[in-house]
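[Discussion] Sanity-checking designs against the backbone

I'm trying to build intuition for which residues belong where. Below is a structure token string of 205 positions. I'd appreciate it if someone posts a full sequence so I can compare it with mine line by line.
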């Protein structure tokens, strides 16, 4: 039966995601302007700090909050030059709910097909060009993340994916001593956004 689906897929072809024409990040549920209702204190005077927002949905009682969807990925450490054509990615889970990990690994599937851009995952940090950190960093994983980072050859880049790795999320604690080059907010962020961020990092933009 599985062979039949493979034949059908080959006949039809696979349409990959158009990264230049992706749907905007959905933040319609974030609308209440009172910061006292927010468990992570990410609302200030009607503005949402997307680097802290966990999209819990508690703030859904009015339409007062203004959300900026354009900044979910940003470069935090300026650098010159681009990485090599084939880029290897090493993912470290610092203690997550697994949502961000699932979205990161979704860039492998046929819809996004990250291999068409010369990207690949690796299980060895010594072969990696890019370190992706997800989850709130637990005390016992700090040293492991540091070892993985120090094992990577230069030039290397670091991206934090999801609010837990950026601000600690509901735990409001995230210290691993590693300076990131870029962050992708969201809980979790969309795979298309993750892929665009990786490509921007690869090209040095």
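Best answer:
Here's mine. Compare freely.
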């Amino acid at each position: 039966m599985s062979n039949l689906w493979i034949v059908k897929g080959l006949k039809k072809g696979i349409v990959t995601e158009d990264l230049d024409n992706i749907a905007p990040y959905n933040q319609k549920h974030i609308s209440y302007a009172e910061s006292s209702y927010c468990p992570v204190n990410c609302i200030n005077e009607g503005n949402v700090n997307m680097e802290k927002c966990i999209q819990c949905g508690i703030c859904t009682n009015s339409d007062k909050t203004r959300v900026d969807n354009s900044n979910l990925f940003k470069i935090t450490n300026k650098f010159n030059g681009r990485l090599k054509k084939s880029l290897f990615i090493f993912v470290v889970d610092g203690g997550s709910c697994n949502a961000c990990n699932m979205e990161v690994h979704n860039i492998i599937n046929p819809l996004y097909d990250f291999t068409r851009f010369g990207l690949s995952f690796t299980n060895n940090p010594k072969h990696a060009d890019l370190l992706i950190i997800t989850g709130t960093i637990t005390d016992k994983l700090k040293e492991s993340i540091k070892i993985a980072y120090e094992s990577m050859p230069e030039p290397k880049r670091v991206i934090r994916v999801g609010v837990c790795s950026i601000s600690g999320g509901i735990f409001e604690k995230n210290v691993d001593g590693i300076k990131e080059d870029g962050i992708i907010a969201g809980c979790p962020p969309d795979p298309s956004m993750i892929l665009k961020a990786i490509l921007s990092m690869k090209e040095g933009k």
